[in-house]
Amino acid sequence: MESKRTRVAKSLQVSHGSLWEMKDSVQLSTFLYKGRERLRIAFRYTYRLKECVKEFPGTKWDPKLGFWRLDDPEGAPALTAHLRAAGFSVCSDVAPN
Question: DSSP state, 15?
């Protein structure tokens, strides 16, 4: 009989295929922070992807939140175009203007 710990560990495992598919993907989503809507930029870390996000004007690493953000969510279309031009795929729940 499988222990509860083993079942939980198995449920948390991610297949190698999923990890590979996510490698060059970015997820954009809005969130409220200090009373304002912001854009969360989530991705599986690679140096190249981090540098691409970092070079976009207005992006910030927030060590308190533990992710990159853009304080103006209206910049999402331009950020998406920037990332796609660099070869990354982008998924977003941000409504287009």
Answer: -
